[in-house]
Write a structure and sequence with these properties.
- The chain is α+β, with helices and mostly antiparallel strands.
- It contains 13 helices and 37 strands.
- Strands 5, 6, 7, 8, 10, 11, 13, 14, 18 and 19 form a ten-stranded antiparallel sheet that branches. Strands 20-21-22-25-28-29-30-31 form an eight-stranded parallel β-barrel, surrounded by five helices.
- A hairpin with a 3-residue loop joins strand 1 (4-8) and strand 2 (12-18).
- Helix 7 (416-432) runs parallel beside helix 8, helix 10 (509-520) runs parallel beside helix 11 and helix 11 (546-554) packs parallel to helix 12.
- The structure holds (2R,3S,4R,5S)-2-(hydroxymethyl)piperidine-3,4,5-triol.
- (2R,3S,4R,5S)-2-(hydroxymethyl)piperidine-3,4,5-triol (DGJ) is lined by residues 299, 329-330, 374, 441, 443, 483, 485-486, 502, 505.
- Its EC number is 3.2.1.22.
- This is Alpha-galactosidase.
- Belongs to the glycosyl hydrolase.
- InterPro entries: Aldolase_TIM, Alpga-gal_N_sf, Alpha-glycosidase_related, GH, Glyco_hydro_27/36_CS, Glyco_hydro_36, Glyco_hydro_36_N.
């Protein structure tokens, strides 16, 4: 049919009707063929006391055509051209992608809307470019991507958080009005992760229809989900532009960040599975055959107290425990003795390292480990050589007093001299030293982010991407971690030029369980930095047994974050055990399909990873079990026709308080069929609060 564009992926269809403007008619399960009467059967009635015409919920809804909810585009040209109405003038369609060109000759604007449906992962990508085809400047206030969801998407799950408590989920009704999230913090943020789920009435981890969304952007954003008064509903996401931030000169364009979406008929597991697949094949650039090395990061071990001989001792201990990459965190550069000084002076502190950094790196390498270094390039301390020489490089609004954040300020990356300085510093560090890995930190929000007086979050974010891209071009081997006070800059766009996230500064394993679960809806385990911290967590003062800490760190990209020299030998052996366990299952964890199971005890998290031939499942008891006896573990995602060898891999060794007799199978290897495991399940031991066990299942 001429007016229909049908994009197809493995499991999904995206059907777009192209009238005056393109409008999505269906986004969900794959439709085998489009019926000749489909257009007629989807024609809407016009209700009483409203406009006399049907108003499409188009790919860029227009105020000017009578869409009374959030328009896709807002702006004006000297007070005019503020309600454009577009006409489709061109389309280019292939099996998995479509580009629509729309034009408004009166407002003198052109839109190019790109929609792609990735065949393997079923992930939809959408972005819009607006071009000013008039002579005068056009002030763009908003350009967002809109994707509709069907009427039976009646529940909404959003993400909120804060430092050390990221990726918290919140469920609510999605029936009238809507939901809105705005981020003005200048980075992806701990508070407002740009992701959202909409689902049917009872969607869960394992079941239900769900539509998942993520805006790939590391600056400000607006994310909303609206129910129109006629019942139609949509999600809209784009960059939040400050007044005057985007003024388009003649022929100038603005392109939105990519909005990613996917549909699942198997609950949130289907969403994460699709996003993970998409990330692995379309976003991540990581050598396929290289296992992700286990880290030791020095931060919580020594903070700013750097003594090369001691650091070497730490490295030796780390390698004895099985660590494969040793990272020197904050405190290595000239004058950096605490939080208030030296950011910007990216030269080795020779007082701390009189022999240079080379002997430390050599020692690390001699222990068979890679070396990594912490940097925070976008920042400047007022007490620094850089600030004394270039006070004008600060991103600020002249004449105002700007509050500091962690006693530091942000550099204006759009200033070419500043950009060149940062590139030169990073380039020369990477050239001089054998650095395999940069931990790229960013520890404050942007307040009054002005470049030459104009709002500059957009420009700053693009400049950051450019800096990372140039660096990776010059040093393609280096891996970069996106750490922004842990968890502050986690999104698909930054992941295109980084390799791992520091998921949270919170190493408290109990808190981490929830943070990591929230993050797992979008990101696969191999990019989720997860470290075993000291027994008393530095952020919460809560103490955890090594079982809980080890098991929680094990399922991401594992690391250790403490001083291994000070740890008692017994604890070191325990670290070594969990590191070995991680390595044993690393290939499966980092390539398999992650899932979460619905736990009937709400105080449990049950999650795992499935490969072709095997699965691992972790059960974590977050708090006192609800009942005296645990619910059998029923494994919904198992292959029902297969037979499995089932073994307990790990549970706390200490004597149990809540259980006086262990189920016998814990010391045996069971043989169980997939359908037994799915329907009858496996009876678990009783877990004490804040402990975890792991089961391995292998197909026979
Ligand atoms: C914040 C990071 O999240 C920490 O891991 C650590 O690198 C500190 N900054 C260093 O200042």
């Amino acid at each position: 049919m001429k007016n229909i564009v049908h994009l197809i992926s493995k499991n999904c269809s995206l059907i777009i009707k192209v009238g005056r403007v393109p409008e999505i008619l269906h986004w969900g399960p794959k439709i085998r063929q489009i019926d000749p009467d489909m257009l007629l059967s989807t024609e809407r009635p016009i209700s009483q006391a409203r406009l006399d015409v049907d108003v499409p919920l188009s790919l860029c809804p227009e105020l000017g055509s009578g869409h009374f909810n959030a328009p896709g585009l807002e702006g004006h040209r000297n007070g005019n051209d503020w309600a454009p109405v577009f006409e489709t003038v061109e389309r280019n369609v292939s099996e998995n992608s479509a580009t629509f060109t729309l034009s408004d000759a009166i407002a003198q604007l052109k839109l190019v809307i790109d929609v792609k449906l990735d065949f393997e992962s079923d992930v939809v990508q959408k972005r819009i470019t607006v071009t000013n085809i008039g002579h005068d400047e056009y002030s763009l206030s908003k350009l967002s991507s809109t994707l509709p969801v069907p009427r039976h998407a009646t529940k909404l799950m959003s993400f909120h958080g804060r430092w050390s408590r990221e990726f918290q989920t919140h469920r609510q009704e999605f029936s009238h009005g809507g939901f809105m999230q705005e981020n003005r913090r200048g980075r992806t943020s701990h508070e407002n992760f740009p992701g959202l789920m909409l689902g049917d009435d009872h969607f869960s981890e394992q079941s239900g229809q769900v539509w998942g969304f993520h805006l790939g952007w590391s600056g400000n954003h607006q994310l909303r989900a609206d129910v129109k008064s006629d019942g139609r509903r949509f999600v809209q996401a784009g960059e939040l532009l400050f007044s005057g931030e985007s003024i388009l000169a003649a022929e100038e364009s603005y392109t939105t960040p990519w909005l990613y979406g996917c549909y699942s008929n198997s609950g949130l597991n289907g969403i994460s599975d699709r996003f993970h697949r998409f990330v692995r094949t379309n976003i991540l650039k990581f050598p396929v055959n290289k296992p992700r090395p286990v880290h030791l990061n020095t931060w919580e071990g020594i903070y700013f107290d750097h003594k090369p001989e001691y650091i070497k001792e730490m490295a030796s201990e780390a390698s004895r425990m099985g660590v494969e990459r040793f990272i020197i965190d904050d405190g290595w550069f000239i004058g950096r003795d605490g939080e208030r000084t030296a950011l910007g002076d990216w030269y080795l502190d020779e007082k701390k390292y009189p022999e240079g950094l080379e002997p430390v790196i050599q020692h690390v390498n001699d222990q068979g480990m890679e070396f990594g270094l912490w940097v925070e390039p976008e920042m400047i301390s007022k007490e620094s050589i850089l600030y004394r020489n270039h006070p004008d490089w600060v991103l600020e609004l002249k004449g105002y007093h700007q509050p500091s954040g962690r006693w530091q300020y942000v550099l204006d990356l759009q200033n070419p001299d500043c950009f060149a300085y940062l590139f030169e510093r990073l380039d020369s560090l990477l050239s001089q030293y054998n650095i395999a890995y940069l931990k790229w930190d960013m520890n404050r929000e942007l307040v009054q982010p002005g470049h030459e007086g104009r709002p500059a979050v957009h420009g700053q974010t693009q400049a950051l991407y450019r800096l990372l891209d140039r660096l990776l071009e010059a040093h393609p081997e280096v891996e970069i971690e996106s750490c922004s006070s842990g968890g502050g800059r986690i999104d698909f766009e930054i992941l295109k030029r980084t390799h791992r996230f520091w998921a949270s500064d919170c190493n408290d394993a109990l808190e981490r369980q929830t943070i990591q679960r929230g993050m797992s809806y979008f990101f696969p385990p191999e990019v989720m930095g997860a470290h075993i911290g000291p027994d008393e967590a530095h952020t919460t003062r809560r103490c955890h047994h090594i079982n809980m800490r080890g098991m929680t760190a094990l399922s991401g990209h594992m690391g250790v974050e403490l001083d291994p020299v000070k740890v008692p030998e017994e604890e070191k052996l325990a670290f070594a055990k969990y590191i070995a366990l991680h390595k044993e299952f690393r290939q499966l964890l980092h390539t398999g399909r992650s899932f979460r199971l619905n736990a009937s005890d709400k105080r449990q998290h049950i999650y795992g990873v499935k490969g072709h031939e095997e699965l691992v499942i972790t059960v974590c008891q977050l708090a006192m079990p609800e009942y005296a006896l645990p619910t059998p573990l029923r494994i919904s995602c198992i292959d029902v026709d297969a037979t499995y060898e089932v073994k307990l891999v790990e549970m706390p060794e200490t004597s149990f308080q809540l259980m006086k007799q262990r189920p016998q199978w814990l010391d045996k290897t069971l043989t169980l069929s997939g359908d037994n495991l799915k329907e009858i399940g496996l009876t678990l031991p009783i877990l004490d609060p804040e402990s975890a066990l792991m089961v391995h299942l292998k197909k026979i």
